[in-house]
């Protein structure tokens, strides 16, 4: 043994710095030969193994002190000794598993930093270490176990992600994908949870009781304790109980087979039912806190608790401390308040619930077999428990979605992980059946006739060479011969092929004439190419026969062989009938009237002439210094036929146009149908321009504007603003579902009272309202209104009518969709039918739902929370799609109201809802006037993330809102520049109408108290479904593009509202 140790020392001393494999092989072979006679053969391997291990571990023991030296050579010496061990093994001086056993012991004892160096050596020597390795046997098992143990150790550390990735990459390269050596097929689990929540047996200590003292204590102390319970002690007891319950769930997490014990599943259910509500409450508090942080401004990020790295992570490379857990009843509250802790717990619970679902009776029968008994436990979920597990899994998944930030994305990732994990579970239940496929191969016969298998690269070598070659030019310019020919014939659209020719209009005949021209051009090109090919072939043949002869004979030969033939068609019998008009040619087959028409026909110009004429053969273009002239085209019967067809189409066109367009015949010369078509199109455009000008003039004199819901609160004030300009004639449609016709009478009274003494008839007409009682859900009634004014008789529409109660919409959503969306579609269809293409749509701020930013810009995503808000989103989308489909015709603006309030200062018109008011301000006004007898105002929620906890809304005066509609109508006029900034030609935009300043419910109550002097009492009740915390507008775009402003203050709104309510305590019916 000493001789071997001395020989090893000599070997290590003679090693150069960084020895290569050849040097090591020679030195190790020399050492083995020298020591062969110094130890018995039967124990020689064992002795070398001991000596090598002792050398390695002696050096490893100095790690702590060696690493304190900045110039240490510890790692280089360790790598040299590992190389020596590996070389000895390769020379069969040790067992094949010795290097792996050494590595296993080293990786267990060294620090993480040293383990990284050791693993780098493993990566560099991977080829030598894995040579001859058989999966699931020998050194493969030792290597797999060693690296898995290292991964488990790294999982308890921080900042080791890259190291773990290196290990997993190495394993994937060394072991096949279907390797089952690392799969737990024996049903084993990790270490059992021994932390809080586990009831440990307490040692029994027998002592002699002191009866007298005990009895005195029982008689005196315990009744006093019952009479005066300590609330703090009870709270501590409850906290301790929850603490034990929470951490007791770690026991089934760590060892699921415990469910086979009687009552284990019941205890698990009870614990989950206690813990999950606490988790949900913590998530809800966090979401509310995040909402308040968002509204509080930019300083919110300073309040966010930073997750400092734990000391264990910082000292991972130097110390050997591994903390198992650190918790207490006091710390548990802080842990649950942490999003990452809750997510870890919920993820863990979701894994266990999915595992339990594999033990339902149907699921268990699908995977359990006699071969995988080690994976089975004596436990089956009954249907009731299975239903509970399903419901709890859904609740846990939903709770993951509610966590912030990015809870939905995190929950989706967890779902994907669990779904993929099911495949691995199934593979494990099937005892890891192999699924590797053999490499693709194909039989190929080589040049010698031998058949051999080749891989994909060799089999496709010739095809890949061909693919790298440039393809030959495609002969057809448009993809195929038929498509190229169709294009050359003049067809430019599918409609040319779908709709066959139907004579009746001049342009149809012109299209046919152009097609004949295209055929003639195609035929001439074909003949020219054929003549050129013949001429070239003859020139080459002549040059070959008479190399020394003069080329002067060739032009004569070409002229002789290509002599032009007359291109005239066979003569037809002439007709004595006179032409129908001096400009009309004779019918096909008759003699032409003049020689001028013959000349005009013979010219192949765009001006098409119908008279038959011979086809002119173009003379060859002179080519100076050319050896031979270009070939001339012979007479061709096909071209002559095309010419005759062209003349026939031209004659038919002029014959058809005689009755309708005879006034143009004097302008077109001798039958030029192209010029005729241009004159016809010119006349048509002039007529359309005159009609359009007349329509615009009529509309300009009296712009009729239809207002839906005109008798309502907003509609009546919009009509007042329209009449105030004296530019519009107002038409009102209302079914008086929540309004009264008296409102329109008062609006008209206001308009008449504001007329000057010298008012014109048009001014007086604008002060009257054409009121129609009609229901938008009944198209026949609406169509009758439009028919009264005819096509183009209504200039534009202000669409206000809709159901608008958020709470009610959640109870009867179908009614809201039918009235708000269905009626809008019907109205748009009737508008299109009667050439009315301008609309101002009354939308709402509820389209934004819970907005991500306050104040709300128009670019905010539309995500309504209530059916009412969704009807507004749908209607906006429908109108935008219509404007996109017909951008030259439709113009539309959507006005997203926030909260209109107040009334006309005269007190003649205001808000008078039928029944109990659904909005806050009219409700407060009616309470103050005694119309609503409620003793207290119900405030829906005071736990919103707002300054006082109540909902915040953006209130603006109803007259400011009405002026916004007036500005929107002006933006729909033809000379408006509002749509110039649109990214596409679609003329549609949406604007916010608000003040840009939010006011809470309690602030509104206080303002009304000042305006009315009424002492309002209120009580806080639960939140109302569909309400959002804050809806404050960002009206900057409306201010910039429309010129919209809302200058009226909250005090003015409350004053005008109270003025209306005191003058009309019972509304319009008072």
TrEMBL record:
Pro residues: compositionally biased ranges: 607-632
Domain NAD-dependent epimerase/dehydratase as annotated: residue spans: 705-973
Keywords: Carbohydrate metabolism, Coiled coil, Galactose metabolism, Isomerase, NAD
Gene3D superfamilies: NAD(P)-binding Rossmann-like Domain, UDP-galactose 4-epimerase, domain 1
Catalytically driven reaction(s): UDP-alpha-D-glucose = UDP-alpha-D-galactose
Recorded superkingdom: Eukaryota
Record keyword NAD present: yes
Ranges where the record places region Disordered: 198-237, 289-312, 458-477, 545-632
UniProt xrefs under Pfam families: efThoc1, Epimerase
Gene Ontology biological process terms, A to Z: galactose metabolic process
Coiled-coil positions: 673-700
Basic and acidic residues bias locations: 458-475
Pathway in which this enzyme or protein is active: Carbohydrate metabolism; hexose metabolism; Carbohydrate metabolism; galactose metabolism
Necessary cofactors: NAD(+)
Molecular functions per Gene Ontology: UDP-glucose 4-epimerase activity
Cellular component, GO annotation: cytosol
Biased composition (Low complexity): 545-580
SUPFAM superfamilies xref list: NAD(P)-binding Rossmann-fold domains
Record-stated family: In the N-terminal section; belongs to the NAD(P)-dependent epimerase/dehydratase family. In the C-terminal section; belongs to the aldose epimerase family.
Main function: Mutarotase converts alpha-aldose to the beta-anomer. It is active on D-glucose, L-arabinose, D-xylose, D-galactose, maltose and lactose.
Entry-linked NCBIfam families: galE
Record protein name field: NAD-dependent epimerase/dehydratase domain-containing protein
Species per Swiss-Prot/TrEMBL record: Postia placenta MAD-698-R-SB12
């Amino acid at each position: 043994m000493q001789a071997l140790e001395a020989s090893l020392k000599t070997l290590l001393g003679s090693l150069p710095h960084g020895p290569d494999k050849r040097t090591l092989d020679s030195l190790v072979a020399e050492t083995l030969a020298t020591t062969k006679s110094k130890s018995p053969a039967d124990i020689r391997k064992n002795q070398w193994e001991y000596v090598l291990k002792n050398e390695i571990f002696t050096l490893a023991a100095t790690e702590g002190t060696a690493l304190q030296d900045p110039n240490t050579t510890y790692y280089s010496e360790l790598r040299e000794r590992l190389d020596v061990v590996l070389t000895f093994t390769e020379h069969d001086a040790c067992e094949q598993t010795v290097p792996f056993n050494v590595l296993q012991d080293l990786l267990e004892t060294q620090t993480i930093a040293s383990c990284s160096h050791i693993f780098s050596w493993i990566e560099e020597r991977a080829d030598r270490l894995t040579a001859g390795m058989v999966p699931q046997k020998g050194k493969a098992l030792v290597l797999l176990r060693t690296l898995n143990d290292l991964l488990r150790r790294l999982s308890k550390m921080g900042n080791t992600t890259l190291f773990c990735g290196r290990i997993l990459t190495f394993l994937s390269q060394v072991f096949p994908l279907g390797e089952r050596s690392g799969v737990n097929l024996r049903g084993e689990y990790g270490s059992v949870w021994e932390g809080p929540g586990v009831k440990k047996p307490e040692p029994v200590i027998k002592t002699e009781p002191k009866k007298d003292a005990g009895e005195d204590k029982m008689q005196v102390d315990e009744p006093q304790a019952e009479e005066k319970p300590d609330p703090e002690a009870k709270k501590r007891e409850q906290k301790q109980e929850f603490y034990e319950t929470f951490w007791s769930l770690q026991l089934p997490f760590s060892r699921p087979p415990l469910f086979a014990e009687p009552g284990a599943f019941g205890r698990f259910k009870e614990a989950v039912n206690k813990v999950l509500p606490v988790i949900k409450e913590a998530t809800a508090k966090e979401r509310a806190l995040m909402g308040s942080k968002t509204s509080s401004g930019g300083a919110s990020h300073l309040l966010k608790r930073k997750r400092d790295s734990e000391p264990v992570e910082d000292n991972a490379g130097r110390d050997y401390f591994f903390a198992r857990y650190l918790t207490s009843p006091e710390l548990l509250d802080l842990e649950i308040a942490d999003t990452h802790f809750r997510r870890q717990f919920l993820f863990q619970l979701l894994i266990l619930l999915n595992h339990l679902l594999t033990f339902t009776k149907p699921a268990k029968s699908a995977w359990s077999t006699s071969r995988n008994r080690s994976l089975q436990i004596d436990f089956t979920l009954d249907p009731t428990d299975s239903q509970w597990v399903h419901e709890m899994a859904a609740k846990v998944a939903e709770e993951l979605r509610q966590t912030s930030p990015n809870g939905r994305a995190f929950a989706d990732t967890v779902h994907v992980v669990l779904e993929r994990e099911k495949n691995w579970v199934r593979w494990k239940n099937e005892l890891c059946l192999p699924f590797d496929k053999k490499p693709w191969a194909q039989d190929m016969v080589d040049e010698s006739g031998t058949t051999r298998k080749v891989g994909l690269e060799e089999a496709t070598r010739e095809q890949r060479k061909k693919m790298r070659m440039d393809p030959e030019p495609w002969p057809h310019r448009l993809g195929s011969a038929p498509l190229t020919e169709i294009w050359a014939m003049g067809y430019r659209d599918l409609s040319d092929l779908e709709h066959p020719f139907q004579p009746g209009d001049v342009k149809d005949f012109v299209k046919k004439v152009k097609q004949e021209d295209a055929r003639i051009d195609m035929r001439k090109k074909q003949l020219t190419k054929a003549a050129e090919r013949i001429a070239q072939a003859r020139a080459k043949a002549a040059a070959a026969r008479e190399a020394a002869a003069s080329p002067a004979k060739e032009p004569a030969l070409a002229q002789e062989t290509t002599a032009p033939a007359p291109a005239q068609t066979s003569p037809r019998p002439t007709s004595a009938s006179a032409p129908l008009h001096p400009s009309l040619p004779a019918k096909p087959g008759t003699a032409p009237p003049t020689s001028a028409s013959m000349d005009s026909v013979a010219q192949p110009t765009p001006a098409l002439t119908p008279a038959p004429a011979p086809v002119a053969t173009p003379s060859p273009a002179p080519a100076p210094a050319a050896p031979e002239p270009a070939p001339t085209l012979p007479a061709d019967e096909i071209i002559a036929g095309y010419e005759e067809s062209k003349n026939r189409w031209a004659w038919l066109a002029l014959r058809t146009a005689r009755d309708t367009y005879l006034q143009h015949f004097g302008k077109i010369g001798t039958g030029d149908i192209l010029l005729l078509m241009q004159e016809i199109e010119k006349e048509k455009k002039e007529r359309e321009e005159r009609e359009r000008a007349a329509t615009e003039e009529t509309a300009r004199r009296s712009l009729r504007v239809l207002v839906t819901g005109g008798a309502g609160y907003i509609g009546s004030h919009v009509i007042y603003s329209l009449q105030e300009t004296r530019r519009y004639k107002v038409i009102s449609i209302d079914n008086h579902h929540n309004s009264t016709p008296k409102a329109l009478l008062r609006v008209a009274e206001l308009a008449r009272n504001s007329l000057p003494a010298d008012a014109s008839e048009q001014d007086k007409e604008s002060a009257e309202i054409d009121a129609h009682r009609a229901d938008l859900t009944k198209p026949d009634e609406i169509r009758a209104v439009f028919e009264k004014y005819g096509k183009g008789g209504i200039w534009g529409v202000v669409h206000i009518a809709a159901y608008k109660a958020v709470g009610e919409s959640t109870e009867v959503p179908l009614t809201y969709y039918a009235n708000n969306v269905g009626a809008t579609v019907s109205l748009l269809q009737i508008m299109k039918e009667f050439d009315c293409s301008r609309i101002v749509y009354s939308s709402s701020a509820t389209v934004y739902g819970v907005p991500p930013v306050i104040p709300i810009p128009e670019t905010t995503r539309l995500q309504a929370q209530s059916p009412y808000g969704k009807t507004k989103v749908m209607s906006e989308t429908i109108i935008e799609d219509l404007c996109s489909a017909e951008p030259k015709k439709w113009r539309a603006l959507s006005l997203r109201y926030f909260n209109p309030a107040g009334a006309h200062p005269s007190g003649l018109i205001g808000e008078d809802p039928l029944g109990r008011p659904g909005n806050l301000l009219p409700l407060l006004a009616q309470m103050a006037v005694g119309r609503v007898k409620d003793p207290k105002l119900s405030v829906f929620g005071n736990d919103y993330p707002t300054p006082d906890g109540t909902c915040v809304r953006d209130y603006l005066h109803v007259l400011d809102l009405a002026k916004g509609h007036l500005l929107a109508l002006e933006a729909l006029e033809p000379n408006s520049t509002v749509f110039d900034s649109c990214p596409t030609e679609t003329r549609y935009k949406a604007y916010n109408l608000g003040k840009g300043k939010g006011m809470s419910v309690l602030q509104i109550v206080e303002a009304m108290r000042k305006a009315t002097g009424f002492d309002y009492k209120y009580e806080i009740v639960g939140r109302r479904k569909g309400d959002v915390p804050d809806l404050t507008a960002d009206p900057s775009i409306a201010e910039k593009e429309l010129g919209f402003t809302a200058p009226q203050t909250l005090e003015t709104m409350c004053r005008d509202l109270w003025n209306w309510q005191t003058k009309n305590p019972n509304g319009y019916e008072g």
